[in-house]
Amino acid sequence: MDRLKTSARLMIVSDLDHTMVDHHDSENLSLLRFNALWESNYRHDSLLVFSTGRSPVLYKKLREEKPLLTPDITIMSVGTEITYGNLMVPDDGWVEILNQKWDRSIVIEESKKFPELTLQAETELRPHKVSFYVEKDKAQAVSKALMERFEKHGLDVKIIYSGGMDLDILPQGAGKGQALAYLLKKFKTEGKLPNNTLVCGDSGNDAELFSIPEVYGVMVSNAQEELLKWHAENAKNNPKIIHATERCAAGIMQAIGHFGLGPNTSPRDIMDFLDCKLENVNPGHEVVKFYLFYERWRRAEVENFEPYLASLKATCDPSGVHIEPTGSEHSLCDGIDGMRSIYGDKQGKQFRVWIDRVLPTQISSNTWLVKLNKWELSGEERKCCKTTVIISSKDAAVPSDGFTWMHVHQTWSEEETNLKDHSSSIIVF
Ligand SMILES: [Mg+2]
Question: What family does this belong to (predicted)?
Fold first, then answer.
């Protein structure tokens, strides 16, 4: 992970389904709250790792359905695939480790002899993961019998049962916990062991994450019986693991606060920024705050908006320019005035804005170039703008004095370009 030159301040390793993503929260509010917290306070010096049972195909599907951030590292297929960055570059060293005492064809051949097992879809069968469905009351006996057969073939495999239905067969060296242990070892070798690591999960295949020494752990409030049982039997007295009282991503934020790992108030929970002096002020926070305001503005959720508009204008450089995705250019101050025409145009409708991959680079003593992806969900339609913002602080030593927006440049992200009609007569950020 070359993005950070030194140790990450915090590394969050989170499961997705029913942990980061709450499938009972149709508005995805707790996920959006986490996103705003992460991008404003952690993205620049911390690492986000998603660790999911999903294969790459189903993982990408979830990212299309939910407002998930781009993680720095993705661990998929129950710890059998590790990839880096937005481009998802695979870790070849991990593949080599998993090839030891593993033969996928023997695993499939032997498993076929058990009628209790139903093979999962082709997309879920990966080079180092073979998955079945099996009823809860049969899982234990089948696992035991399978293990005996594999041992006879000289294979060293691991069987994980989770979610009350999924039975995964993996190389012994694989699994969410082993993948995390591998990453931590790698960071240690590079001299970049994260200062703190928080693991987050809800089901049986997450238990291994909680077994890694030195990490903090949160079982979200909605954690399944199988994980709670594992905890009661194996880690009951470990003060570094909690069972949150909040569901999913809200439980993760609760754990950040509980263990004192850093700020845990999401900007989404701050209703009045004019009235709120924050300790942790950084360029990332500045842009999160603006786009949150932009969402609330269009949803007609900003009360007493004249002072807000005045304060926004005061943060724009008078000669600052905004280049819109359409290519049209106008002054930043005109852009703020133009927002009047769109106040409340999304009132009562599905409309959310979130930003991803906020990466500030300091380009002079008091100026930052901030790159980010701005996402907008309107009804069923999602679109993404690549956005570059140049902002400066009046006083480099005390950025809490406030930032000035110098320049904003937006382009449609590549995957969007061919899909939509972007002609627009109103000014939008
Ligand atoms: Mg889960």
Answer: Belongs to the sucrose phosphatase family.
